[in-house]
Design brief:
By secondary structure, the protein is of the alpha/beta class. It is 40% helix and 15% strand. It has a seven-stranded parallel sheet with strand order 3-2-1-4-5-6-7, with helices on both faces. The longest helix is centred in the middle third of the chain and has 28 residues. It starts with 9 loop residues before the first strand and ends in a 7-residue tail after the last strand. It comes from Apiospora phragmitis.
Length: 269
């Protein structure tokens, strides 16, 4: 039987029609939360909607997170359906083609940063505004100040120069800084932000490579990413469990502003 520990809590997970995002959405549903997801892939979103809508606690919307209007609509629809928003999981993202700066086109730089960095910013902005506009959750908690939480899916690549190409590296460095800024400016108001710095993981994030026009095999071969093996790969279900753990208001307050490493010690320290 599913735990009801997060009953009356509303969670929004971006990029959640597959891969890690879908695993996170399922974990929150199992914990009793109301869950809204978005994705840009309509067919896959429809399949996920059919899988989860029977819970009565699920909403799935097609959303381009690089559009501020679309993101504002997503958050407004989530609040209209469930009455509030408590947690945003900024999961949506795309991989780059492993191009170092000398090989990277501006078009691909713009694409990757548009989704990973600008998209994360727009979702975080809309969520923070929703948190500010609503009263604290009506549930017993020793942290009566809690107003909302942003969990940002980050990456080892943000601090290691050869785990991806230049665009992805910069985008993940940027979202880590976005978490720090948000935590610093809003923590006193009970709005918390934390990043999960994920290592190697089997997800669908590489699906966007086709729009980038290829994959830089030579650069990849020189990267630390090429050394990952089965023992190094984090399980999406384990990351999802950790997201549920962070939903505890006191835990969220305690880790506000943190960049939490979740990489199975890969590359080994």
């Amino acid at each position: 039987m599913a735990s009801q520990s997060l009953q009356n809590t509303t969670v929004l997970v971006t990029g959640a029609a597959g891969g890690l995002g879908k695993a996170i959405a399922a974990a929150y549903l199992d914990a009793g939360a109301n869950v809204a997801i978005c994705d840009i892939h309509e067919a896959r979103l429809a399949e996920t909607r059919a899988q989860f809508e029977g819970t009565g606690r699920f909403l799935a919307l097609t959303t381009d997170i690089t559009s501020e209007e679309a993101v504002d609509h997503l958050v407004a629809e989530t609040v209209a359906r469930f009455g509030r928003l408590d947690i945003l999981v900024n999961n949506a993202g795309m991989m780059d083609g492993f191009d170092p700066v000398g090989d990277l086109s501006k078009a691909n730089w713009d694409r990757v940063l548009g989704v990973n960095l600008t998209g994360s910013f727009l979702c975080m902005k809309a969520a923070v505004r929703a948190f500010q506009a609503q009263p604290p959750p009506t549930k017993t908690s020793s942290d009566n100040k809690f107003r909302g939480l942003v969990i940002q899916i980050g990456s080892n690549a943000s601090t290691m120069g050869t785990q991806s190409g230049a665009a992805y590296t910069v985008s993940k460095h940027g979202v880590a800084a976005l978490v720090k800024s948000t935590a610093g400016f809003y923590g006193d108001a009970g709005i918390y932000a934390v990043a999960l710095m994920i290592g190697a993981m089997q997800t669908n994030i590489g699906e966007g490579l086709a729009v980038l026009g290829g994959f830089n095999q030579a650069a990849y071969a020189r990267s630390s990413a090429a050394t990952a093996d089965g023992e190094s790969v984090a399980d999406t279900a384990d990351v999802a469990r950790y997201c549920v753990f962070l939903a505890d208001a006191r835990i969220a307050a305690g880790v506000n502003g943190s960049a939490i490493t979740f990489n199975k010690n890969w590359p080994k320290q």
